[in-house]
Every structure is written in structure tokens, then in C-alpha cells.
Amino acid sequence: MFCERQCALIHIEQLWSENLFTAEGRIMHDKVDTANREARGKVRIDYGVPLRSLRLGLIGKADAVEFHKRDDGRWIPFPVEYKRGKSKMDNCDRVQLCAQAICLEEMLNVEISEGALFYGQTRRREDVVFDKALRTETEDAAKKVHELIESGITPKAEYSKKCKLCSLLNICLPKVNSKASNYLMRAMEE
Fold it and tell me: How many domains is the chain partitioned into structurally?
């Protein structure tokens, strides 16, 4: 959702580089992942929960899953994803959280209507409703990532404002690759 080229560099070309943002995120996730389980009244919290969806072809790990006990005795999962920054205008974080909910639904044979994103920079929690539109966007994103990886083709670099935040900036070199690509295209036309 963040960048198709970044996805290809990581999952097709098996490249990775850490920067300040990924290091802060890793440290935040390490703290969450080292916690085991806790309970508070009618809420039990499990950390580092393995996830999978055979239908969407996804595997991963939820930072935390709160299990809320209903009056009928059933425990309903409520995924919580930790992010180092702040809420974004696009849906990339919400799609990730929705994918976790879809995995949990398939694994536990339950329906999950909402979850939450916790942002470290603002120290705020944002509730997310898993409505039809978000579920469709999530399923489309899963399909798209599978098509990208199966193609084995890394998309060309296109510089944008978000490139400044990317840990793969010095590998991707979007400004250099764009200029080189334009130069080669002009040379081939001549």
C-alpha cells in the first residue's frame, strides 16, 4: 500500500535497509512482541499472535489481539496494530489492520467488526471499523501484491514526497533511476 516498488525490492529482490523510522518501529514492536499475555477484567490481551489467511494467501503477526468477553461468554477478537508515527491520510495502516482481522476471522471462525491502531508519536489510539469498503480495499491489495510478486518485475522508480521516509531510499534511488530511465528512453527514440 505504501509503495509497489518498495514491496518488490523487499519481496522479489530480497533487499532491506534500516533507517531511523524502521529502527524506532522495530524497537516499539520488540517491546510489544516480548510481552506475553495479560488480562484486565473482561479483556484478555495476547501479543505477537501468528496470523494466516489461506483465502487471501497472507501470513503475518498481529502486534496485539484483545479478546473481549461478551455477556454470552464468547470471546471476540479485537486486533491492535502499533505504529511509531501518527495517523495517515491514506488507508495503508487501516488495510494492514483489516488484513489481520480477516486472518483472525478465518482462523477462529468469528466475525470481527473493528480493531484499533495505536500511534506512538501521538500516544493515541484510533478505532477502525472493518466496513465493506475497507474489506474490499484489503482484498484488492492482497491480490495486487500476489500479482506483483508472481510477475517477478520490480516497478520503475517514481519519486514522491513519501520517498524521504523510506528506508530503501538509498537502494531505490528514485531520483537517479527516473533521470536514467528518461535518458535511456530519449536515447532509444533517437
Answer: 1
Domain with 138 in it = 18-156
Under a CB-based contact definition with an 8 Å cutoff, are residues 114 and 78 in contact? yes
Asked whether residue 163 is domain-assigned, the answer is no
* CATH code for the domain in which residue 56 is found: 3.90.320.10
In a domain, 104, yes or no: yes
What does the DSSP assignment read for 85-131? S---SSSHHHHHHHHHHHHHHHHHT----EEEEEETTTTEEEEEE--
Q: Which tens digit of pLDDT belongs to each residue from 118-166?
A: 998 899 999 999 999 999 999 999 999 999 999 999 999 989 988 988 8
Could you tell me where the DSSP H helices lie in the chain? 4-11, 20-34, 92-108, 132-151, 169-172, 174-189
